[in-house]
Amino acid sequence: MALVLHTYKGNKSADKALIAAEYVGVQIDVPSDFQMGVTNKTPEFLKMNPIGKVPVLETPEGSVFESNAIARYVSRLNGGENSLNGSSLIEYAQIEQWSDFSSLEIYGNILRWFGPRMGFMPYSAPAEEGTISALKRALDALNTHLASNTYLVGHSITLADIITVCNLNLGFATVMTKKFTSEFPHVERYFWTVINQPNFKKVVGEVKQTEAVPPVASKKAAQPAKPKEEPKKKEAPAAEAPKLAEEEEAPKPKAKNPLDLLPPSPMVLDDWKRLYSNTKSNFRGVAIKGFWDMYDPEGYSLWFCDYKYNDENMVSFVTLNKVGGFLQRMDLARKYSFGKMLICGSEGPFKVKGLWLFRGPEIPKFIMDEVYDMELYEWTKVDITDEAQKERVSQMIEDAEPFEGEALLDAKCFK
Amino acid sequence: MALVLHTYKGNKGAFKALVAAEYAGVKIEEAADFQMGVTNKSPEFLKMNPIGKVPVLETPEGAIFESNAIARYVSRKNGENSLNGSSLIEYAQIEQWIDFSSLEIDANMLKWFAPRLGYAPFSAPAEEAAISALKRGLEALNTHLASNTYLVGHSVTLADIVTICNLNLGFATVMTKKFTSAFPHVERYFWTMVNQPNFKKVLGDAKQTDAVPPVPTKKAAAQPAKPKEEPKKAVQLLHLLIRE
What we know:
The complex is a heterodimer. By secondary structure, chain A is an alpha+beta fold. Helices cover 42% and strands 12% of the residues of chain A. In chain A, helix 1 packs parallel to helix 3 and helix 5 (125-147) packs across helix 8. Chain B is α+β, with helices and mostly antiparallel strands. In chain B, strand 1, helix 1 and strand 2 form a beta-alpha-beta unit. At the A-B interface, strand 4, helix 3, helix 4 and helix 5 of A face strand 4, helix 3, helix 4 and helix 5 of B.
């Protein structure tokens, strides 16, 4: 049985082990049928790595996770007779010191700069400033060392160089522009020399330095539909930044909207929205009563929606952002709809339940086509002859709490 | 010349090397007149560690920084012992848990703890994410320790030393009994290990915090960054974080 490395393609952390393997002369297979978010959630995978992250190396004797540990293991195969681990105890220790340094001080801070801009972690300007400052401090220290050292330890490539250059590679590829790295010229020299060594080039290919820092992820750039494929923060960054940014489709403004061609209705949506917003007291007696008085079941329809993947909603602000993103994308339908989205529960998993009023007897097709969030929810038409369903509609409009036995984390209105 | 460890007293990073030294039978002296914020900014110190952080181990052959690297060096100083496993795969799995406990446990615990002590900007969403990630890491560790007494093999290895020192900081500062009771196997593991003689010698009596430190108000944020007076508990906690 060969060595098998489980990872998604392009994982810069996996590169470390593969490059070490080139130096040591060891064969590692990387199965191409690995599916991120699927393969690494199976019971077999979790037996190898209980936290379910990648890369993981499968060997005849057992499995190893943590990219640096895998690289260390590989570096000692084939009798361990190679220069990757230094030629004395102190050299070995200093190889370890730079490996840890580059992972904690460099890679860690690159990730904290890059991740929030891609929307994998909460973005905050002061936190980003702190992270960039810490990264510069580390690169400064590295730059000082490399002013008078060609390699990190000794006079040839060691595991420290493999780990450090792979860590730097993420930075060069995603957030560290030439302008940024030009402050650390010895690091630049070191990076370009090492990454162009044959054993590196074989694994990493052509390396290009990013020309710009990715913009801060707005709600519009939030991750696309299927949450099961959503990469976790540590694993995701290797995919190049531009590939992950979602393109927002512009609604088609000039085409005539079929809803405008419906027979006129006595209900005027804007009147309802005004009544909803302006009723400050006795909401049930004024606004809810007013709603049912003006509701026209011929010209409009009411719908309940339930989020299909509530088990994913473990973190409150992520859940709220998800719903917020949905409502942003509904902007193109504002003229024809009114909605309430309730986020229920006092702790994760939070349940997202919605109530929508649409012009027309069906959910408008252009909304189904343009707003990808729609397919993440189960939609059921409200039967207003059913008193229980009518009451549910009323409760959702008025943010009744507790709702269906649960506290409300938040209630968002689309109007 | 003996091995000299430059650090402030109570540094969790230093504990790792000191516990390893007990197991490996290695003698380490702690630099007597070390002053945090002063000694580690001197040119001599920066020659040893250009980023100026602690701990740093001075040896006759050269200096080493990064607490895990120092611990690895110490573990191998006197030749063969069981700290690094008895096969290549055991060695690799020791490394895997060392990295795991640093990246998945220690890093997230610090992201929870540091802003509350005023060392980093506090943000509720960031803290929520850090706690969520920490729980995920402890959950995985808990699963492993359900059927394993030690992290690797059947006796203490470097993985246990590093992991326990990391957990010790968490138990002492932010992880209350209510929090850790969700991870009973981790609790079992932690209390057994900190009571081993070689750990107790270095760590003293391990204690679990009763409460999470409060979110800092503007007054607390104005606390001096590098206090030199006698450590009270809060100040001791400050020391645990400032490694500059």
